[in-house]
Amino acid sequence: MGRRCNLDLVLIRHAEAEEHSADDSDAGRRLTARGEAQAAVVAGALRHFHLQDAEIWYSPKVRTRQTAAALQAELQASVYRAEEALVTGNLAQLQFAWQEDQSKQVILVGHQPLLGDWIAQLAGIHLPIAKASVTFLRENPCSAQFQFLGHFRPELFAAANSSEKNP
Asked: Under CATH, what is the fold of the domain 8-19+26-165?
């Protein structure tokens, strides 16, 4: 099998979730109403980034699954799946999977600090990864290095969406 070149990788931190409580597990934390709105805004904005062929991979935790569901509703990805490596932090497993699948565009919906660590490892840049923020990376042709393309916070997408509605 030949090696695929030019992977577009989009890393998204889950939207705002409920606070930790003594009786609930971390895995079961749901998005708040604000988090649901953030996820919808990000999903709507990503329509404009030509991600129609993207695969959406998400952590199996509830808050990431909800964030990914908003993306799926907007983008209708052909591949939409939970990936345990987004919880365990196994970047090598994810890299193997996207190379094995010959993926061209992958959206990873996950958690901090893992996303920030992976961005630093792949592109050599350290960023503050706020909830519902989006980072775009592009794999350099036929190498394991990634180019940083951009990083957006949900507030920017919300401002862009409101200016679209009120020209």
From this structure: Rossmann fold (3.40.50)
